[in-house]
């Protein structure tokens, strides 16, 4: 026995334990050797010590501390940019198919649930030390977790790119017609939205996507957010300039033959249920997804802590809630039941310089934002394939093929509501509900002190699953019933 104890003591002295600022010499995780005897708490066999050491090293892969330099205010600005997107254009359409009260209830609910999902994500990041979503999924669930996170974030980013290019497809023809002094009925190949989106993609977006580093394009996020604020101001102004939208009187003159019918069509509704109501929740969810950007923003936060990042998310989500609701309510009160899934497309006055200005600003903003999202998707794809070393030929081929696929989808998808619907019930649901709660439950499955939090996380997960089970069949049913109608676009 003395020899065995001495042997263990020698092995203990020779054993190298990874340095960590968070592990002190007198930590309870590592027990002491007193008077040549191994303390009963100490792990006595070599295999167990090796397992402990390997586990610690594995965690260190996600636990390398790099101090952030971004202030709280700038982090709020960055997260707000991440939240804000083309989803804002579809919120008035969602309100028109739910009514004001039901829409407000859904908007408040999704806002609060999104903030809670950010909380779960930050807890998971703190527990594992991971600051990258894909790496967090791999740390907790292994390769399947990494694949699921990659699929969800990529689908979300591709959906955002599709919606941005859809804006180009819808709005650029109108802007060109205005600049040429032509009416909306003018038709030529160079004002065909499908051709224009291809020209813009391969004339402007492709060269930017081929650059090795797109870091400088991050500066366009401020311009993009400014454009959306300008868009909101114009929507509010137009509501008071157009007291009640004239609903294509020539086509519906029989319906509007008396003033009571006209008044009914311009009267706001508070609760509505119809075949398009199913798109409301996915559209709102799509508008609030920012989860792939949360951890990178968290990693860059100066003097970062979970509490500080939670404050950043609370402020950002509240600001976007106000902006989203005001855009939806004023857009709806301008066009009522005639609002479309792309609100900007409803402002068709060819002599309105203000509308032309906001249309051009939004077009430029989304064109410059597409390469940033594309760069993220391509980088994730190379990371998944473990082809991180730069290869020019592969870089060009993958970029070209992905842009071709995206353009084909933009050309053949009839309306933006289809993009919002598909992405909202799939990737948005995964990123807001299912992934954060699943990661949290897996990480804390042995922590009895967090039973209450685990119950709430389980309910959150169940809500996400129920959302998928209800929404996906309803969206498919609406496609079958409508036959993919283009909604007049």
Automatic annotation (TrEMBL):
Compartment(s) of residence: Membrane
Membrane topology: Multi-pass membrane protein
Ranges annotated as spanning the membrane: 76-96, 102-124, 145-167, 187-209, 216-237, 278-299, 311-333, 353-375, 396-413, 419-443, 455-477
GO MF annotations in UniProt: L-glutamine transmembrane transporter activity
Chief subcellular location: membrane
Key words of the record: Membrane, Transmembrane, Transmembrane helix
The Amino acid transporter transmembrane domain, residue ranges: 69-473
GO CC terms: plasma membrane
Protein's UniProt name: Solute carrier family 38 member 1
